[in-house]
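dumping this here before i forget
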Amino acid sequence: MKKVIKISLLSFFIFFLVNIPLSDGTESITFMYDYESDHTTRSLIEEFEGLRLVAYRCPAGVATIGIGSTYYENGKKVKIGDKISFKRANQLYNFNISQVKKQLENLVKVELTKNQESALTSFLYNVGYGNFKRSRLLQMINTNPNNPRIQQEFLKWTTSKGIPLKGLKRRRIEELKLYFTKN
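structure:
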């Protein structure tokens, strides 16, 4: 697979444009990526969500597509059998991550480091707004975002329907490492 990377400065951000020819050679997809502000968050989310262009059931049994998307922009649920392109997966991720960042801003009442914000964005992207809003983790963060006991709270979120999942445990450990890494 041929990859072409073009780098340009735009509004003080570095954007990567990656052209990837499709296997049939008929189309090329361009991703525009704000490397400076979202690289850490996106890398963490993609590591655990992966990229799927055909809907599948995640370990929690929820129909999922793209980079961990369970809903489309119009609120319609993803259905098994849905298919999207690489470009569409990127658009859907960008929409979802913008929503998650707004939710995080709304819920967290204290100042966070960039690493704390990236870790919590990944966490919220995975567990959802309602779960995070009701969590002891959020209460602890809003009281003292540097409390070492936050580690134990992160690690309570490693099950789905009461079943421990190795992938969730690995994700929480990576989020924890990032959360407590100084910028």
